[in-house]
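Continuing from the previous page of notes. For each protein in this section, the sequence appears first, followed by its structure tokens. Read the first protein now.
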Amino acid sequence: MNRPIKKVAIFCFALFAALFLDGNWIQVVQANSYSAHADNYRNTIYAYQVDRGNIIVGSTNVAYSTATKSSQMKYQRVYSNGEMYAPVTGYFSSNYGTANLEQFENTLLNGKDTRLATQNFLRKAEGKDQAGGSVVTTINAAAQEAAYNALKSELSSVGEGAVAAINPKTGAILALVSSPSYDPNQLASASATTQNNYATALNNNTLQPKLDKALNQTYPPGSTFKIITSATALTYGFGGQSITPTSNISGAPPVTLNLPGSTSTISNSGGETCNSLVLQDAFAQSCNTVYGYIGMQVGAQHLQSMAEAFGFNKTGPTVPMTTSTSMFPTNLSQAQLAQSAIGQYNVTMTPLEGAMMASAVANGGVIESPYLIAKELDTKGNVIASATPTQFADPISSSVAGELATMMQNVVTNGTATSLNNIGVSVAAKTGTAERGTGQNPVAWMVAYAPATNPTVAVAVMVADNDVQPSDAFGNSLAGPIAKAVIQAVVGG
């Protein structure tokens, strides 16, 4: 072979070698990344070839798939009562992916879960499409409907709100509502135009309908935080003395609390006088001056420690969706400490944390981890996994929980939560009205549990609405009727 031909042969060999290596690099080494790429439309087509499993509330499929006549999109995802259950189900969209249970249970729902391998192998052998397993939620349909309807009727077009209700004995989530909500059917539409137009409208809505406000938005808790401030005083005492619900907080001012090192003051709602400085009475009247004073007496270290024991400053629980962290500020001055003790300054919490706070009192001082999935089912409806309640925290002793329970019942019978009085079942509660920025109405809260003697539901309701009269923007008037509806849906009355 002469020299020129030899050079051409070597060059051609090098080209074939490069082509071989490149092909193997793409098909073997990078295969997974190309397969998972967002622009790989084959994934979308494949996803719609699967008879995706159901999301179930009680015995009702609130998310399910129906067969179509399309060769590419063989199954259409459908959501019954879509807006009501959107914070639970999320959506399954060809253009926008998945969210909430559709996302966190995707492997089970799309049939790729290894526990379904045998069943889907047999389905394939029979010429059937791949099928997914199903998810049975912990949601109480009556509670979810009551929360959704009550919140929707309470809010104006510029208002937002959320409800989280749990079983304090197990942590099972009974209701999870966020308003304004959205319709996942629009995002699951077979029409890309419908999906895109709806997604654009949602993104342009300043109230963020897709944001799950019960789990992923924090708000100032206002006077509901006095549950934790009370727990701190009852646990640690102050001034060398133990504190009980009947203790007289003699150093607290009844009208105005001057804050050390600051020109700011703390006053009671409407400038009212705190008629009694006894702890349980000040709690029932929600006296800011007394609780600001208590905060400074128990000290920042004890108050922060108690807040963190309840779950503040910690990664929020997974339900399985991730939840935002409720925050209690650190390195506080005395003035900031007093404001934090009444749930202001930079204290923020999710509605779920509010329900957990109430459940700690209801459950003798123990918080059970919230969870949304009761069971997982295979393609034939057989149970392949069931939830087991687990403890999240034990922030207070049973004796302190008992004292707080008496104080919270007194709020309903003799205090600020009159909307929960005489509703056919005994209730323990705490209201909250948290100040926001200039020109904004306060955030209205109600955290409660019932029945007071044998609790089966703990609920937190948050309402923020600038289109109501400021005189009506209180926890008792705005959030109370919603909490009432949820409680009655669960326990009757």
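Done with the first. The second protein uses the same format. Note its length before scrolling.
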Amino acid sequence: MGNSEEMRKIQFTGKSSYIVSLPKQWVTEMGLKQGDQVAVVRQGISALQIVPSKHHNKVASGEDATIEIKQDDEGSVIIRKLISLYLLGFSIINVKPKLGRLKPSQRNAVKDAVKGMLMGTEIIADSTEGITIQVLINLFELSVDGALKRMLIIAKSMQNDALLALEEANYDLAKEVISSDDEVDRFSFYIIRQLKIAIQNEHMLKEMGIENPHHCLGYRLIVKNIERVGDHATAIAKDLLDFKKPIRKSVLEPIQEMNNFSLSVLDAACLSLFKRDFTQAEQTVERTLDISKYEKKILDSTRSLRDDEEVYRVRRMNENIRRISEYASDIAEIVLNMTIEKTLRKQ
């Protein structure tokens, strides 16, 4: 039956019930019979979704989940479990001690994760007996594209700030870049959570502006690529903090040029995604090949350097920035795969 649409009349039965009949083929495909239950779930303002009870998963019913914490569980272990349940789409998450009480360090780890990593969550109960977290976001507050745009803006400004910190030997700015990486991760977790919920629910896909369940995988890979841009910015900021000295201007200029180029192709690739533009994606893949011109300038500029340590640092930076243009190319390739069907239809 796929996405076929059938018009059905609303009928009124005696007392005060309105009824709509279900398509026979769908009932058969779902293996339903008279007397079976279906869940009717409100979607957005004007739509209802009908889900057979046996397919009615935890996400649709907004069930809660509980994590039991052992006495010696480290904060990082607890945070990993929290993130997993958040990504699975639970709307209430309980954190309880297996025995005794939660230690202050364990409670703080949960609070930090809620504040810094899990978008749209808040703590609704908190004691040594346990913490309850509620996920407040619904699908319409921030679209996947909207979250991706914000993620991209943060990752790009991290990259620019990292190079500025390097130029000015600004250690505070370098530290700020490193802490901004958590913000990129927050958007990343949020988008993955939305994709996981949407992939189980065709109606939500449409609401989120995703034409096809296969595109969820494309989005997942794009998120990963933007997340990596943040990782490279962090690596450049850490370089300054590790070596405690800037890089000389003659070498920093070609690095800046290469960075501007990489971020501009990244922008173009993401724009081709938001516009679903096959031609722009194709041109972006072509443009990313120009990176070699910028690399050559950097490698030429290192010839004037006498200090091996500085040569090593510049080469590592070159590698970090080149990767960003590779991610742009990957994103544009994914957009080509997403939009190829449209191009074929036009022909």
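What the second structure shows: The chain has three domains: 11-56, 61-135, 144-346. The chain is about 60% helix and 10% strand. We return to this in next week's lecture.
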